[in-house]
C-alpha cells in the first residue's frame, strides 16, 4: 500500500466528476496534491542490536530501507495522512522485522525484552486511532513487527466449523484459503482488502455483515499469543465454558499491549449460495433506527443492515431524485440477505413483513447492489478529496437504543460547532444489537492551512461529547493512542488498574506497543 | 432451603414407587435416612470484629445463630450433602452478614480488608463445585456475605430491552419482577428456583433455554462490582465496543475472587406468547448429536434442545415402551419453541424439515410437556435416592464437535472404571454451539461405607479424562475449589499468571473467597 494513500493504486484516482460536482456545491475546491515522498529519519537502533535481530529471525527478515520503514509509519487516519503529506515521518520505526511463525515472534519478544526495544505489531497498516505510533523514550529503538509472512491456513476442522488462521492474512487472502473448502469467515470491514486477521482480533474489528455473522471478536474461538512471559493459548478447549473469566476477551482488543497474536481460530461457515441486497426508504433517521431496533429485539436480523441519516442519504446517492425527489427528507436503508435459498427466502419474507409494517418503503435491488459494489471504496474517495483540499474523516461510537438520539445530536453539534460553517456531518448506523447500535459519522470540511489542528480539536470535542453522553469512545476502531485520553471515564479507575496490572505481569519491561490503549 | 436437602420441602419426599422399582432393578436398596442436624462449630470471629461489622451494616444484619450458619455451610454437591449427613460442619462460616445495597457491600469489604476477614459471597447456596468453602488460614474469621436483601429491580430500560437486577434475586423472583412489565430473562438452569442473579454471573451459569436465549454471560450487558480497591462499573456504555479488552468477561466467572457483583444489567425480552415442547427419536446418540450440530451450524436452533444418550433415555422415561419398544436403542431429543406465534411457526417448520431430513422421528408433544413439567426436579430425586443409599452425582464438560465422541467415551469409561460394577452412567447434551456442545453426565451407584471417598476418586478420574481429551473442566458449574486443580492445563501458566495478577491488584489482602478459582 503506498504510504500516503489508501489501498491499491489501480483503484485510486482523481475524484470522479460526479462527486467533484457534488462536493463543489458545498465547498470551494483547491488542488492540493499529496506531498512528494519525504526523507525517513535514519534508524536509531544500534548496529549490534540489528545484528542480534538478524541472528534471531534470519538476515533477510530484518529490513531497514527507507521505503519499508516509510510504509510502516503510522496508520491511515486522516491525521496520519496529513502528517505524512506535511513531510513528518518522525514516527518511522527503526527496523522492520518479519517473523515467520510463532516461535520467531516469541524469540523476537525475548530479544527485545532483554535489550529494551519497543515492538509494534504490524498487520495491514490500516489503523485509524494511532495504534502504530510507539513511544520511543526509554527504548533502544522501535521494531515494526510485520506479520506479513504468517499467512497460512494453519488448521481446519470442518466438523466443528473452525479454522486456525495466521495473523498476517489479509481479509481476501483468508477468504480465498477458506473458499477452497467451500467455507468463509464473513468479516467485511471497510478495510477488508488490506487489514489482517491479527489486526481484526487485536482491535475488535466489526464488519459490514455484523448483523448476520457477528463482530470479529464474536467469531473468535481461540487465540495463540506470544508474550514476554511466554505463550498463552486461550479458548482451545471449547466454544464457551465456566472455567473462570474468559481470558480470550482480555487479549481481544489488547492492541499488541499484552502480547502478539500469532494464531486466530475462528468459526467458519458454508459460503452462501444466495446474496441479495436491497434498499428501503424511511421517512426519517429515527423511523429507520426504530425499525432496526425492532428487528434486533425480535432476533430477526438480516445479514447486512445499515441506515444513512438524511445528510448521508442525500450526498452518498448523489441522486436527489432517487428517494422520492429533492427535499423528501428520506433515509436510505440497505438490507442484505446471504445464505441458502431457503434460509434467505424465509428471512427475507419475515423481514419484509416487519419492515413494511413499520412504515418502510421497499426500493428494490438497485440501491442494494450499488452499495455492495462500492462497499470498500470510501477510503479511496477520501484520498481524492484530500487532493482537492477537502478533509474527510470518520469517527464512530456505540450506545444503547434509548440513548441514540441524544448521542447523535450531541456528537453532531460538537463537530459542527468545532469546525464551523461549511462542514458536512453525515451519519449512518451499520452495527445493531438487541440493546443498542453504533453511530458512524463522516465529516467533510473545506479545511485550510491549519487542517490538522482544526480536526484534532474537533475530534476532541466529539470525544468529549461521546463521554458526556455516556457512550463508548469507539465501536470498532480501537483505542490506540488517539482515544487513550478518553478511556478512563469509560472503564473507570478500577478498570484501568486491571489493565495496568495485566500489562505489568505480561510485559514487565513495557516493550509491547508502548503508549497504546492503557491510560 | 433445608441444609442437607435440595430446595422446597413441599416438593421433596420419598422416592416415587415407579422410580424406586426402576432403581431397584439395578441396585440393592437400603434405607439410610439423612443424619439429624448436627452441631455447628462455635464462631471463631473475635467479638470486637462482630461488633465492628454490626456498626457497618446494622445490628440486625449480622447473624451468628447455628441455623443461619448451618444453612450457609458449603453448597449442594453430593460431597457437600454427604459431609453434612456425616456430621461434618467444619466449613461453617463464623458470621452471616447481610448487606442492603452496593455501599453496604463496599463498606463490609473495606472493613474485612482492614481486619483480614475472609468474605464468601452467598446467593442461593446451590454451588456444586466447592465455591462456598473459604480457606480459613491466615484470617480472623469467615463472613458469609448473604446478598439476599439485594433483591430489587433497580432499573428498567424498555427501549433498550435492558434491566438492572439485584444480585440476591432468585430466578423466579427476577422473572416475577420482569413479568410485571411483560418481560422476561429466560435463564432456566436446574437450580433456577433457588440460585441467584449474582451467582449466575459469578459462575457463568447456563440454562435449559440456552439455545434460544443464550448462556447467562451472554445475557449480561453490564456489571457493577465492589472490590477492595473500590467500585468497578463495566459495560455501562454500550452493548459491545472496541474500547480495549472486555473487562465484563473478567468478572463473569470470577466466583467472588475479584469482587462482589452488586448489580447485573441483562438483556430482557418480551414474554413468549407460545411455548411448545416436543419429543424426537434418534437411532443413536451420535445421530442425534449430528442433527444438533447441523441445526447450530445453520443458525437454526430452537429455544430448547437436549438429547439423552441411550442409557438416559431408557432410565429417565421409565417407560421402555415409549420409544419403539424395549431394546430399541433409541435416544430421546426434547425440542422447545418459544416466541410469537409467527416466529414459533416459522422456526418449527424449518427445524421440523431439517430434523426429518436428518432421520429423526417426531414423537409429538407428550414427551416435551413431560420434560417441561419436571425440568427442575432432578435435585429432589437425588436426595430421595441418597435416602435409600444410592449416590447420584452429575458432572459436565464441553468441547468442539469433532472431539465429542472421544470425550464421551473417555469420561464414561473413566467413571465406570473408577466406580466399578453396578454403576450407571447417563449422559445428555443440553447446550449446543456452532462449534461444539456440552456433555452432562449423571452417575448413580449403590455406594457403600466409603461413598464420599469413592466418589471423589471417580470425579478426579473423570477430570483427568476431560483434561486428557482436551476439553474444558466445566461448561457451567464453575471452578470453585473442586476444579481448581485442573484449571492450569486449560488456561496455561500465562493464563494463571494473569488471574493472579488481577487478584493481587484488586484484592491485595486476599480476603475474597480465598481458595476458589485461582490455582
TrEMBL record, chains A, B:
GO biological process: lipid biosynthetic process
Domain FAD-binding PCMH-type: 89-271
UniProt entry tagged with the keyword Repeat: no
Statement: the UniProt record of this protein carries the keyword Flavoprotein: yes
Keyword terms: FAD, Flavoprotein
SUPFAM superfamilies assigned to the protein according to its UniProt record, in alphabetical order: FAD-binding/transporter-associated domain-like (SSF56176), FAD-linked oxidases, C-terminal domain (SSF55103)
Site-annotated residues for Important for enzyme activity: 306
Cofactor(s) demanded: FAD
InterPro entries found in the cross-reference section: Alkyl-DHAP_Synthase, FAD-bd_oxidored_4_C, FAD-bd_PCMH, FAD-bd_PCMH-like_sf, FAD-bd_PCMH_sub2, FAD-linked_Oxase-like_C, Oxid_FAD_bind_N, Vanillyl_alc_oxidase_C-sub2
Amino-acid positions noted as binding substrate in the UniProt annotation, renumbered to this chain: 382
Molecular-function annotations in GO: alkylglycerone-phosphate synthase activity; FAD binding
UniProt-annotated binding residues for FAD: 203-206, 255-261
Active-site residues per Swiss-Prot or TrEMBL entry: 440 (proton donor/acceptor)
Record-stated family: Belongs to the FAD-binding oxidoreductase/transferase type 4 family.
Protein's recorded name: FAD-binding oxidoreductase
